[in-house]
Amino acid sequence: MPWRKTSDPYRIWLSEIMLQQTRVAQGLPYYHRFVDKFRDVKALAQADDDEVMKLWEGLGYYSRARNMLATARFVHGELNGAFPTDYEDIKKLKGVGEYTAAAIASFAFDKAHAVVDGNVQRVLARFLGIETAVNTTAGKKELAEAAQYMLDLEQPATYNQAIMEFGALQCVPRNPGCANCVLNTQCVAYANGQVDSLPHKNRKKYNRERYLHYFLIKQGQEVLVEKRSGPGIWQGLFQFPLVEAAESLTPQQLLNELFANLKVSVQKETALPPHKLSHQTLHIRILEVNISGRHAVKAEEGQQWVRVSELAQLAFPRPLRQYLDQIQLTLPFGT
Ligand code: SF4
Predict the structure, then answer these.
(1) To test the ligand 1 pocket, which listed residue (150, 165, 178, 186) has its Cβ within 8 A of the most ligand atoms?
(2) Domain 1-113 sits in CATH 1.10.340.30
């Protein structure tokens, strides 16, 4: 990993923010694009919001990008461009939690803070035989304390990297290499036949179902878009006019909702595959409508007409971007 070969807090911070809830293979190209474009915290702090959101497009969990920008501007503007070196001060930065603060403190400044990610939790739960569920507050606390206790205070950065790598390569979730593991004579889970059952996890019960109905409204060579505001997913990204409901609505119900006084017909309707996030499933349908009469539909507050050729420059949530690519709406109509 390129960010493991550096002690530059900017690059370590950037990579950790990008890899939260993201697989390395998916995050790596984004990391390279960001450090190529914004070589240091000053460059990122001075970037345009829309440019950053566009570069982040597809990586998901967009609040990370907004927090990242806020932190870059804080570090550049208030701290003269120097990241704090103390764990508690690092943790106060927007979007930085315990894990990321420990990673920056340890990897950039060699401070004695244990980094506890999923790999470390798995190794410690097995090696020490910890049975408290790792996705509970009590389990997280117990494992964080165990991690801090086990930390090599002389070489915290090396130790942290080693145990993370050990979890990623040796003590993997399924079929770990116990037979040739250097720790197998001391490993509690191995001795007790608990390797497959540890770490314990409580089943998540809550899953919210959301029904998002988007209207792709074309007039001439223009499409109506709006920027998502307010808290929640995809804030700051562009989307088409939306009707959200607790259930799937029929095209007629939707047309009545948005175009009560206009003659509008649905030209095409597309249901996207369910989009699963950590606590919710999004059921997305896109209804393409053509409206005759130039500007029969007025852009409401927060909405704007954009030329089809400009859509490629705007940051859309991943499902909408995939849809646009699929129907090639980045090309002018009729080509
Ligand atoms: S013996 Fe198996 S479960 Fe225990 S630390 Fe090694 S790989 Fe992990």
Answers:
(1) 178
(2) yes
Name the residue at shortest CA distance from atom 2 of ligand 1. Answer: 178
Structure tokens at 64: 């990370």
What backbone torsions phi and psi does residue 187 show, to the nearest 5 degrees?
-80, 120
Specify the pLDDT at position 334.
35
Q: What is the pLDDT of residue 332?
A: 41
User: What are 5-30's pLDDT values in tens digits?
Assistant: 788 999 999 999 988 777 888 889 99
**What pLDDT, in 10s, does the model give residues 113-138?**
999 999 999 999 999 999 999 999 99
Taking the centre of ligand 1 as the mean of its atom positions, its distance from the CA of residue 144, in whole angstroms, is 19
Look up the CATH architecture of domain 115-203: Orthogonal Bundle (1.10)
State yes or no: is 16 an active-site residue: yes
Is it the case that residue 236 has pLDDT exceeding 70? yes
CATH architecture of the domain with range 208-327:
Alpha-Beta Complex (3.90)
Q: 10 CB contacts (<8 Å, ≥6 apart)?
A: 40, 41, 83
Domain coordinates in residue numbering, the chain: 1-113, 115-203, 208-327
Cα–Cα dist 312/240, whole Å: 14
Q: Are 305 and 299 in contact (CB under 8 A)?
A: yes
